[in-house]
Specification:
By secondary structure, the protein is mainly beta. 13% of the residues lie in helices and 47% in strands. The chain has three domains: 47-209, no CATH class; 219-433, no CATH class; 438-481. It binds zinc ion (ZN) (2 copies).
Length: 487
């Protein structure tokens, strides 16, 4: 422990860690740099925004059998939201990072044996990075700016500091590449629900309500900054709202609502379920908080609805309603071991590749845990095994996996107390991905495949093995596109 007087206001500033190079004065927000045995001030750092986090400086826990305490934090904002990086100090003097976003936690430790880290500018979502015998898939590439901080940190930052980071996933493992310094640094870890970290000295609910005015996940209402309509959302879970009345896009990831875009040109859309509808699924009451209308990029006549459902302790899930019926969808925390144009392997089981296509959002309303906007395009790969579908969705910034299962319209009608839903659906034909629709997906699967893989080939320096796999996959895609499905 190293105590100094703040060079600006004279208050005591404490360095708990010998590897910390800066600490923020609690009283005047001055960034205090430690250099040899002297200290120097370097600008100010804004206070953190209240985000109803249960964590605080001083909270302690156990990660992989080692005791740690949180000694600092940085808040970072990027165009799709906002997250906390907590600087954790272990008893042996080493350190790690606990990232917190929307109630999800990832613990990572710096590693020094990562080699051939690609430059940030060539990183692409979907590219493979190999570390420690594992193949990590880039899931998230973003630039974020620091909006506040507290406590002590291992590097010097001030307001406006920019972080360039990329996350990669391999099954349940996370790898983060941080480009903030001259030399990129790799961190490796895994998703760790707070309950598994044995946390002590967390903020209690009263303390959170006293400072943040709300608990994470509790219903909150905000007046639309564009038209004044009330917007309902779960606090700390939703990061963006789309006003159902005027379609304005509003950022609600921190304690001030910000208007992102007005979309007065959009007309409202009639959907089977509406925002605010409550359904009882397996004994839990789920609320519809957001809805999207989407269509295939190449087929203006196609369309389906996606409903985002929220439960305070069970989190989020989706219901998707299409011509073919209803699907219940959950985002996968553990990613498949591998995925190709033929199959995906998930927990040792093989899922057969079905379709490749691109979707575009044509309408959005309600609350979302990312930045949803009309015109968003997503590349989709579907895989299937015994009626269970795995779907990979990727955009230029992000990639994710989900698992879906068909549910009957009758059951959805029961959940939401809409008996008419069950009756109406009986008239529908069950196309179940009709043969006709296979041909076009096969053709633009090739286009999607090329677009999707080009950055990976570039990133790999046109590695011959990767190119060969791509070439074989192209041939396999070309064959079904030219077969007569009616035969
Ligand atoms: Zn001070
Ligand atoms: Zn509005």
């Amino acid at each position: 422990m190293y105590r100094v007087a703040c060079p600006s206001c004279g208050a005591e500033v404490v360095f708990r860690s010998t590897i910390s190079v800066m600490a923020v004065c609690e009283y005047c927000r001055t960034v205090v740099l430690r250099e040899l045995e002297a200290v120097r001030e370097q600008g100010k750092l804004s206070n953190v925004l209240e985000d109803a986090s249960p964590l605080q400086i001083g909270s302690s826990g156990v990660y992989l059998g080692r005791h740690f305490a949180l000694v600092g934090r940085i808040q970072l904002r990027y165009d799709a939201g906002f997250w906390n990086e907590w600087y954790a100090l272990f008893d042996d003097g080493s350190a790690g990072w606990l990232a917190e976003a929307g109630g999800q936690y990832v613990f990572t430790l710096a590693v020094n044996d990562a080699t051939e880290i690609p430059a940030f500018d060539v990183l692409r979502v979907g590219a493979i990075y190999r570390y420690g015998g594992n193949s990590y898939t880039m899931s998230d590439v973003r630039s974020a700016r620091c909006t506040g901080g507290q406590g002590e940190l291992p590097f010097a930052i001030k307001d406006g500091w920019e972080a360039k980071v990329a996350d990669a996933r391999c099954r349940d493992r996370f790898l983060t590449l941080d480009y903030s310094d001259d030399k990129p640094q790799a961190y490796v870890g895994n998703a760790t629900p707070l309950a598994t970290l044995n946390m002590q000295l967390l903020r209690d609910d009263d303390a959170i309500v006293a400072t943040a005015g709300r608990l994470r996940g509790t219903p909150q209402t905000l007046a639309c900054p564009s038209c004044g309509s009330p917007l309902d959302f779960p606090a700390g879970v939703a990061t963006q709202l789309v006003c159902p009345a005027c379609h304005a896009e509003v950022d609600c990831s921190s304690d001030t609502a910000m208007l992102i875009a007005k979309r007065s040109e959009l007309a409202s859309v009639k959907t089977t379920l509406s925002i605010g509808d409550v359904g009882t699924i397996a004994g839990r009451k789920w609320s519809v908080i957001g809805l999207l209308r989407c269509r295939e990029l190449e087929d203006a006549t196609s369309s389906w609805s996606e409903y985002l459902l929220y439960h305070p302790s069970a989190g989020l899930q989706w219901l998707v309603e299409s011509e073919e019926g209803w699907d219940q969808v959950r985002v996968l925390d553990i990613w498949p071991e591998s995925a190709s144009m033929e199959q995906a392997v998930y927990k040792g089981e093989q899922f057969r590749h079905l379709y490749e296509y691109a979707s575009v959002v044509t309408f959005a309303a309600g609350a979302f845990n990312w930045r949803a906007a009309v015109g968003d395009k997503t590349w989709i790969s579907d895989y299937e095994r015994n009626g269970v579908k795995l779907t990979r969705e990727s955009s230029a910034q992000e990639m994710g996996w989900s698992r879906s299962e068909r549910v009957s319209a009758q059951l959805v009608g029961q959940w939401f107390g809409k008996p008419a839903l069950a009756a109406a659906s009986a008239k529908r034909t069950t196309l179940a991905g009709g043969r006709e629709s296979l041909r076009r997906p096969a053709i633009y699967a090739m286009v999607a495949f090329l677009l999707f893989n080009l950055p990976i080939w570039i990133a790999s320096g046109f590695d011959s093995d990767i190119l060969m796999v791509g070439f074989v996959a192209m041939i396999l895609l070309w064959i079904p596109a030219n077969q007569d499905f009616d035969g």
